[in-house]
Design brief:
The complex is a heterodimer of chains A (115) and B (113). With 115 residues, chain A is mainly beta. Chain A is built from no helices and 11 strands. In chain A, the strands form 2 sheets. In chain A, strands 2, 4, 5, 6, 9, 10 and 11 form a 7-stranded mixed β-sheet that branches. Chain A is globular and about 45 Å long. In chain A, 33% of the residues are buried. With 113 residues, chain B is mainly beta. In chain B, 0% of the residues lie in helices and 58% in strands. Chain B contains no helices and 11 strands. The radius of gyration of chain B is 14 Å and the shape is globular. The chains are: A mainly beta (115), B mainly beta (113). At the A-B interface, strand 4, strand 5, strand 9 and strand 10 of A face strand 4, strand 5, strand 9 and strand 10 of B.
Chain lengths: 115, 113
Amino acid sequence: EAGVTQFPSHSVIEKGQTVTLRCDPISGHDNLYWYRRVMGKEIKFLLHFVKESKQDESGMPNNRFLAERTGGTYSTLKVQPAELEDSGVYFCASSQDAGAPYEQYFGPGTRLTVT
Amino acid sequence: KQEVTQIPAALSVPEGENLVLNCSFTDSAIYNLQWFRQDPGKGLTSLLLIQSSQREQTSGRLNASLDKSSGRSTLYIAASQPGDSATYLCAVRPRGGRRALTFGSGTRLQVQP
C-alpha cells in the first residue's frame, strides 16, 4: 500500500510569488490533514478535510492560504502571495474514517523556502 | 488550549542503554496520544498510538505508557541501537469531534555506537 505522497519535496520562491503544494493521501482515506512546522517551532495543525469538505480550518494562518480537495482525492495548498514567515516544512497526513483509532499517517513533507 | 511539552530536548546515550522519553500535556481531555519518529529530512513515522482508555502499548523494543489524569506519557526504548537515532515526537488528539493533533517540540536522540 502506497503511503501519503507530497509534491514537490522542496520549493524555493521569492517573496510575493505563488506556490502550490500537492498531497496524495493513502487510497481510501477520507480524512486529509495539513500541518506545518516553521523554523524552531512545533508542528502546527492547519486544516482537516473529510472527503472534499473542510471539516476544520481553525489553524489556517490567514487568507493567503487556500486549500482545496476537489473530488475528495488529492489536495492542494496554495500560498499567494508568499511571505518570508511562510518558510517551513508543510506536512500532509491522512486517516480512515471508519473504526478507531483514526491513526494519522504522514507524508514526507514539502520544504518551502521563501527568499 | 492544549500544550504539549517534551523533555529532554536532546539526549545522547551509548548503544545498549535503556532510555525513557517524556511527554506531558496540559489538558487531560484527550482521545488518543501518538508517538512518532522523524529522521532528518524525512516525514513522520507513527510508532505507537494509545487510546485514552489504555495504559500502555508495546511494539518490539518500544513501550509507551499513558497516565491521562496526570497528563503524562513516556516512551521507553529498550536496548537502544544507533538506528534508533532520530527525533521523537508525541502528539495528542482532543476528545470530541476535532481531529487536529497538538505536537510537542520533540526529543532529539543520538545513540552512540
